[in-house]
Amino acid sequence: xxxxxxxxxxxxxxxxxxxxxxxxxxxxxxxxxxxxxxxxxxxxxxxxxxxxxxxxxxxxxxxxxxxxxxxxxxxxxxxxxxxxxxxxxxxxxxx
Length: 95
Description:
Blueprint: E1 9-14, E2 20-26, E3 34-38, H1 50-58, E4 64-68, E5 74-75, E6 81-84, H2 85-94
Parallel strand pairs: 3-4, 4-6
Antiparallel strand pairs: 1-2, 2-3, 5-6
């Protein structure tokens, strides 16, 4: 972020019922640019990103991602973009 001078802000999100999202990316005080769940499984199940769906209830326009070691990107039935972590890093460069 500093090296590329992207001026992105990174945060963690959690509800009072312990739903959580690993990474919220924003710029300034505006609406977040992306919500990201990071998983070590190469085939994470939609149950593993239920925090993203909770986040979506408050921020329906924010894109949802899961970065993991999957060999190929795909879109989950619930709209979560599952990306190989390397593609996810490139996505961060584009935000």
